[in-house]
Amino acid sequence: MYDDIPKPTVRKDLRPSTRATSKAGVRKNLDWLRKNCQKYQGQWVALNEGIFLNASESFAELRRTLKNAGQLDIALFVNLKTDM
User: What's the CA gap between 49 and 75, in Å, rounded?
Assistant: First the structure.
């Protein structure tokens, strides 16, 4: 019956884009955000287990900076913009 429709290709070599973090790491990120969110209001911030990696008004710029620093795979991106 639908022989003219190509079947989707399933890639098995894909891996998650970010690593999971521990409960303690999540708590550290939340603590950092509670203490510092006002300072970085209007920006994107990147965190890793409560450690600030970088911030930028542009997500693309922040991602590029972290990629160049070799930190892209460990970063949690958080948008602190209020005009969404």
Answer: 9
Separation CA 3–CA 29 (nearest Å)? 50
Q: Where are the beta strands (DSSP E) in the chain?
A: 44-48, 51-56, 76-79
The tens digit of pLDDT for each residue in 21-58 reads 788 999 999 999 999 999 999 999 999 999 999 999 99
Q: Work out whether the CA dihedral 82, 56, 14, 51 comes out positive or negative.
A: negative
Closest CA to 78 of 61, 59, 51: 59
What type of residue is 73?
D
